[in-house]
Design brief:
Layout: E1 3-4, E2 14-16, E3 23-24, H1 34-43, E4 47-48, E5 56-57
Antiparallel strand pairs: 1-2, 2-3, 4-5
The chain binds zinc ion.
The site of zinc ion has 8 residues, from loops.
Length: 83
């Protein structure tokens, strides 16, 4: 149970890391629903199941994905942002 839907619908669901308890927040307006929120979280490095019930881990707790190994979430491998 890691994604908490809010009753009044004024905010996006709250996604919480199962490992460290860190919350993923977005400033998107209007509020996004779960699929869009999860897409944003995955883009930020979160991993886990694409279901609100989880489990989910944040980008700090997610195990590093070896280059060249296709992951279950279909992210582009190798783009680690070399700056
Ligand atoms: Zn975490």
């Amino acid at each position: 149970m890691t994604a908490i839907p809010l009753d009044d619908g004024t905010c996006s669901p709250l996604l919480i890391c199962d490992d460290c308890g860190r919350a993923f927040s977005t400033d998107r307006r209007p509020p996004v629903e779960w699929p869009a929120l999860w897409a944003l979280a995955v883009d930020a490095g979160w991993q886990g199941r694409d279901r609100p019930v989880g489990p989910h881990v944040c980008e700090r707790c997610a195990p590093p994905v070896p280059a060249g190994v296709p992951g279950p979430v279909g992210r582009a491998a190798g783009d680690v942002g070399e700056v």
